[in-house]
Amino acid sequence: MSAVRPPARFGELAIAQDGTVESFQEKPQLHSGWINGGFFVVQPEFLDLIPRSNVMLEREPLEAATKMGQLSAYKHEGFWQCMDTKRDVDLLQALWDSKEALG
Q1: Burial (Cβ within 10 Å: 0-12, 13-18, ≥19) of residue 43
Q2: What's the distance, CA 5 to chain centroid?
Q3: 58, 86, 79: which is closest to 5 by C-alpha?
Q4: Are 35 and 3 within 8 A, CB to CB?
């Protein structure tokens, strides 16, 4: 499994008890917590963990592989962007067209 730290979509605030903003950072890169980056390399035996065609890969199969101690992650520190929405597709297309996604 690829593991990535996604860019934040919103500004991050640290707020004191009295409501004073102690720090503000617009769309910071997250430094804690890794997420599933959506790319996998599997052994053929992994397919046996998929009980039916309509199962969500991120649920039963990956949870089972984790419990078996058979899931490893590659921590990818380079460029990564999700592609879940039309907005994401448009952003990635613009980056590709400008050659910025190749860096």
Answers
A1: exposed
A2: 6
A3: 79
A4: yes
Question: Quick one: pLDDT at residue 26?
Answer: 64
Task: List, run by run, the mean pLDDT of 10-residue segments along the chain (103 residues).
Answer: 79 75 66 80 94 88 92 90 91 88 61
Which distant-in-sequence residues (6+ apart) come within 8 Å of 65 by Cβ?
46, 49, 71
Distance, in Å, from the CA atom of 27 to the CA atom of 91, rounded to the nearest integer, reads 16
DSSP label at residue 58: T
Question: Which phi and psi (to 5°) does residue 76 adopt?
Answer: -85, 120
Output DSSP code: residue 63: H
- pLDDT reported for residue 30: 58
User: How, if at all, do strands 2-4 and 74-75 pair?
Assistant: parallel
